[in-house]
Write a structure and sequence with these properties.
Elements: H1 5-14, H2 25-38, H3 40-49, H4 66-72, H5 86-91, H6 104-107, E1 130-145, E2 148-155, E3 164-167, E4 171-178, E5 187-188, H7 195-198, E6 207-212, E7 218-223, H8 229-234, E8 238-244, E9 253-262, E10 272-273, H9 276-281, E11 286-289, H10 295-298, E12 301-304, E13 308-317, E14 322-326, E15 331-335, E16 343-347, E17 349-352, E18 356-363, E19 368-374, H11 377-380, E20 385-391
Parallel strand pairs: 1-4, 2-10, 3-8, 9-13, 12-20
Antiparallel strand pairs: 1-2, 4-6, 5-7, 7-8, 9-11, 13-18, 14-17, 14-19, 15-16, 15-18, 19-20
Helix pairs in contact: 1-3, 2-3
This protein binds copper (II) ion (CU).
């Protein structure tokens, strides 16, 4: 609907129509790959629509993907290119999942998935300025509400992944081990690092390790960057790394909210898979803070009158922004740049872009029940809403 080029291209591929000037379907795929370098959405559609097993020209170049690896004939020829780069988006094809997140791991044991409120509390800083994280990419069912279990791709078994907290200049030593059949990777927006090496995809049983020191304070997204990135973010592989400044900000109750969209297939055997075609159409079924629609309506965030509250908001998308607003309150401070730089005062609503993060502060000097919302209400209504309860 909003991306008229995409269905057109998919249609072309499905029907194997060969455009004028291309000698065969394979040449057309190669040309379309080149096109995808310039138009990412087209690249994503192309990746999704590629024949399974990666029969096209690119898989012969040894690009990642489980089936691509098999076709290439062993570990020696594996070349896991950075999936966030223009190159990797073009070469990573032939993943076994097709248009759906419903892998065997992601759907197994759906009925026993238990609902759990996601704790929005900012975790404490590491004592010694060093964070050592060894995470696993896992595919498993996650219950996001009483009646909805999703076939999730995750970091550490949940949507979103763990909230991480450090300070500017701290050392983050990160390892990702992939437990799943689909290749996965990690892209920290807080890192300044060669993405081709650090953010490369790894296949089942493999690990990737890298170290970085965040240079700026702020709320930073992390996500799987394996192509198609839309599919991997859209299926649950994202989270927040909060970087506090060296000089502490004013004392506050600090919370982290990661907004994201859910594009789901109809239930099958009690589970809903993520639907890549719906992700491309960008009309979500749910929008949620911290992976569960409306969870903080049922179980609000509670503070005391007189508390300063600091919300670190990350918008994981994959596509839509978050117009963050607290009903009945005003932010005395929103930081446009890295806190404490560039504060703006007296803000009612501010927009966090997809792939971005911001810091919002308010002084809770009035008791009551204050809804915090995405004031883009088509999305607030779909679950991006909760209560901040200020107890007297
Ligand atoms: Cu992934």
């Amino acid at each position: 609907m909003s991306e008229p080029n995409v269905p057109l291209l998919s249609d072309l591929l499905e029907r194997a129509v060969v455009p004028e000037g291309a000698t065969d379907r394979r040449a057309f795929l190669a040309r379309a790959s080149a096109l995808s370098l310039a138009i990412p959405a087209v690249g994503a559609a192309l990746t999704a629509c590629s024949p399974r097993g990666g029969g096209g020209a690119d898989s012969a170049r040894g690009g990642g993907g489980a089936s691509g690896a098999q076709a290439a004939g062993g570990a020696a020829s594996l070349r896991h290119l950075n999936s966030n780069s223009r190159l990797d988006t073009a070469v990573l094809k032939g993943e076994p999942h097709g248009n759906s997140s419903a892998t065997a791991d992601a759907t197994r044991g759906a009925s026993s998935a238990v609902f759990r409120r996601f704790d929005p509390t900012l975790p404490p800083l590491p004592a010694d300025g060093r964070l050592q994280l060894h995470w696993h990419a896992r595919e498993l069912p996650v219950r996001i509400s009483d009646d909805t279990v999703v076939a999730a791709w995750t970091f550490e078994g949940d949507i979103p992944g763990p909230i991480v907290h450090c300070r500017v200049g701290d050392t983050v030593e990160f390892t990702l081990t992939n437990d799943a059949l689909v290749p996965h990777s990690m892209d920290f927006h807080a890192a300044q690092i060669d993405p081709k090496a650090a953010f490369r995809s790894v296949t089942k049983g493999q690990s990737v390790t890298f170290t970085f020191k965040p240079k700026w304070a702020g709320a930073f997204m992390y996500h799987c960057g394996t192509a198609p990135v839309l599919m991997h973010i859209g299926s649950g592989m994202y989270g927040a790394l909060i970087v506090s400044p060296r000089e502490p900000l004013p004392a506050a109750k600090e919370f982290v909210l990661v907004q994201s969209e859910f594009y789901l297939e109809e239930p099958q055997n009690g589970i809903r898979a993520f639907d890549y075609s719906k992700m491309l159409a960008t009309m979500p079924d749910f929008v949620a803070f911290n992976g569960r629609p409306n969870q903080y309506i049922k179980e609000p965030i509670r503070v005391k009158r007189g508390d300063r509250v600091r919300f670190w908001i990350v918008d994981a998308g994959p596509t839509h922004p978050c117009h963050f607003h607290v009903v009945g309150e005003q932010f005395d401070t929103v930081y446009l740049g890295a806190p404490p730089a560039t504060p703006i005062r007296g803000v009612q609503t501010f927009t966090v872009p997809a792939g971005g993060g911001m810091c919002f502060e308010l002084l809770c000097d009035v008791a009551g029940e204050f809804p915090f919302v995405n004031h883009g209400f088509g999305h607030g209504q779909k679950g991006a809403i909760g209560f901040l309860v200020v107890e007297p």
